[in-house]
Design goal:
Layout (H helix, E strand, L loop, with lengths): L3 E13 L25 H13 L4 E6 L7 H9 L5 H15 L2 E5 L5 H7 L5 E3 L23 H13 L4 E7 L5 H18 L2 E8 L16 H14 L5 E3 L7 H5 L5 E5 L16 H7 L4 E4 L5 H6 L7 H7 L9
Parallel strand pairs: 1-2, 1-8, 1-9, 2-3, 3-4, 4-5, 5-6, 6-7
């Protein structure tokens, strides 16, 4: 067992739920005509940022559907807010968050090098879930009608971040139709990229949870034993400087820490998990009880080794120096 496991206090902001993909397991995505489809304006986001700062958060997680600009109505919404591209809007959101005192971590789907160069100075880290290297795009599969879920495209996007020395989060989604061999292949692909670029700070091992109204609503989630095996595989395959992260609102984290997990991801005192809204975040005190004798240590959305290397954007330098202690964790 480790001496401690890490976590980060964050604010989770679902900037838009418009997405070009139609993943069979996703309950987050919406079409423009749906009642709860949205593109959040800045004036709605600012109070959430301020509440998070007041509650002691250090991170804001900006989440988006992927390539929403392919959808006409979304482009119209974006133009009405005064922006021509999603990345232009993301950059403005990041600047606002930094001014309020929160470090941005953006997960906006597949980004190319030019887009990453815009966002690097304004983010502590960036992220993109690989999910799997398995091809699940057959009719009825988890990634049917999902142009952005081709494994090679996602791997190229992760490599592009590596070439720019961007601290990065990725992960696999367990139980969406892939095999154990597919999980091994996915983890090995991540390990190979990290060995080349050295930028992957954490890999999430996330369990699929069925959502009502989706094509996979009757699909069984992975068992605890499957998750224990997946975490064990991750710890064996990934380089030791990559943290293995699990979601404490989706599964008992203690079981998985015993198998090699070392991080519990972002938990929010002020916002819900918009991807899994039925699963409430545990508070810090409850999380400590769940972890029994294993201590918690709060971190920032950039891991200590990347603070030491100076792999953070110029726009977040002052804030990181203010929030980090001498070891690169959250200052008490």
């Amino acid at each position: 067992m480790p001496d401690f496991v890490t976590y980060c206090r964050n604010v989770f902001i679902p900037v838009t739920n418009i997405c070009r993909n139609r993943c069979g397991y996703c309950g987050f995505r919406r079409d423009p005509g749906d009642n709860d489809a949205h593109l959040m304006p800045l004036w709605d986001i600012i109070p959430i940022l301020k509440n998070g700062k007041k509650a002691g958060c250090t991170e804001v997680l900006f989440t988006f559907g992927e390539y929403a600009e392919e959808i006409v109505e979304y482009r119209e919404w974006l133009n009405e807010l005064g922006y021509s591209t999603t990345v232009e809007y993301v950059a403005e959101l990041c600047k606002t968050a930094i001014d309020i005192g929160l470090l941005p971590h953006t997960n906006a789907g597949i980004l190319d090098s030019s887009q990453l160069k815009v966002l690097k100075p304004l983010n502590a880290s960036l992220g993109l879930m690989l999910e799997t290297t398995a091809k699940l795009d057959a009719d009825g599969g988890a990634h049917h009608n999902c142009a952005g879920k081709h494994p090679a495209v996602r791997l190229d996007a992760i490599k592009a971040a590596g070439k720019l020395n961007i601290p990065f989060t990725t992960g696999i989604l367990v139980g969406i139709g892939e095999t154990v061999d597919d999980r091994i292949d996915s983890l090995q692909a991540i390990a190979n990229i990290h060995e080349t670029y050295g930028h992957i700070q954490e890999v999430i091992i996330q369990n699929f949870m069925p959502k009502s109204g989706t094509t996979m609503s009757q699909h069984k989630p992975p068992t605890k034993q499957e998750m224990i095996q997946a975490v064990s595989l991750a710890r064996d395959i990934l380089p030791c400087d990559i943290a293995v992260q699990v979601a404490p609102n989706l599964i008992d984290p203690y079981l998985l820490v015993r198998s090699g997990a070392s991080d519990l991801g972002g938990i929010s005192p002020t916002t819900i998990d918009w991807i899994n809204p039925e699963a409430e975040w545990p508070g810090v005190s409850k999380l400590q009880k769940m972890m029994r004798s294993v201590h918690l240590r709060e971190r920032l959305p950039i891991y200590p080794q990347y603070i030491e290397k100076g792999w953070y954007g110029s726009g977040v330098k002052r804030l990181i120096e203010t929030l980090a202690d001498e070891d690169g964790y959250r200052k008490a």
